[in-house]
Amino acid sequence: MLRKKKYIDPPKILVLGFGLIILLGSFLLTLPFSTTNGEGLSFLNALFTATSATCVTGLVVVDTGTTFTVAGQVIILCMIQVGGLGFMTFATFFAFLLGKRISLKERILLQESLNNLSMEGIVRLAQRILIFTALIEFTGALLLSIRFSFDMDIGKAIYFGIFHSVSNFNNAGFDLMGEFHSLTGYVDDPTVTLTISSLIILGGIGFIVMNELFEYRISKRLSLHTKIVLMTSITLLAVGTAGIFLLEYSNGLTLKPLSLSGKILGSFFQSVTARTAGANTLNIGDLTQSSLLLIILLMFVGASPGSTGGGIKTTTFTTLIGAVWSQIRGKEDVIFYRQRIEYETIYKALTVTFSGIFLVVVMSLILTISEHGQDFLAILFEVTSAFATVGLSMGLTPELSPLGKTLIIFTMFAGRVGPLTIAYAVTIRRNPDAFRYPKGKITIG
Prior knowledge:
Blueprint (H helix, E strand, L loop, with lengths): L9 H20 L13 H12 L9 H4 L2 H16 L1 H11 L6 H11 L7 H27 L5 H16 L20 H16 L1 H13 L4 H25 L11 H14 L15 H13 L12 H15 L5 E3 L2 E3 L1 H28 L5 H12 L14 H16 L1 H8 L19
Antiparallel strand pairs: 1-2
Helix pairs in contact: 1-2, 1-4, 1-6, 1-18, 2-4, 2-17, 5-6, 5-7, 7-8, 7-9, 7-10, 8-9, 9-12, 11-12, 11-13, 13-16, 14-15, 15-16, 15-17, 16-17
């Protein structure tokens, strides 16, 4: 008799795939050629860096610009690119090169990886993702290289342009400026600020939205998903910019010394980067507590489905807001743009949000014990940043204990893959219920 092949769920494959990439990257970063001191990183620091890069987070325990050689930085950049687009997208790319047909199983994996609603046209979408990525990253690298050439020699400027373009389009936030300064030297520079902001926004709205906008000239229509993503993203960017501008306007350590245009650019950039990118032009540790709390909320919401960013996602946030508003108005259905949201979607939004809150709260609680003496707001900020794969930091990450680093590593991994995906991956295969229990009534509120 033929032996029956063991079925592996797509969530298991995605978790294992990301895990293997991280382990490979960790091993490479421990080798002597990866660091400037010729000794390589310790395994824990290498694992932390590889997880941060593959999960496109940007939290670092060592300075990227001064600790790693060019070889080490290229390894990190490759992990950022693979982690941002998803390893299944790259597997599809190599299948194209080899002339291999994409099987049904691979299409299912692609759909899961890209968080697409339908398998229809999934291979064409993967092809366009690669084209969009190449064009956007090339344009960003060109603009940044020209700007950086005024501050450094042309070869270094081109290298810096490529690195920061790839890093920020994938919402990773790694930088080569050195001494953990990120982009604070360019806070009022419109070229750097607006170019990197554009890269972050394009990477954060999601490839599904990007593809629909590309096809709009022909179809003349946008799906409900795209409308909600664009509406929510614009609203959050506006609220974040206005909030940071008002809260930091008189702060002598951040916006106060800048011109009006510098204040606007600084506020706008911090609002953009809080949505999962991780680069910063203002020193995060110098922000007021009100601004830090606002950024924590923006980080938790994060980017959009099918993007290079993390968080609970813009569609999840808007669905919950819609459900609350419908309940307040006494309406049974949640309506957006004259379309009804299914209850299954609302339940999933609740589950994703609760899972995120639970993970952030538990990790913050444990870190308040393991990192005794550290400020609670700094711990909450760091954990939220890790969960939402943002990478912004108040400076706590390099000071973490081994246990603290391990907890943040797990949080970054869970944030990138998704708490639900991990839960599905470690549970047995799910089957629908064979029967339903009678209804029960409880009082709420």
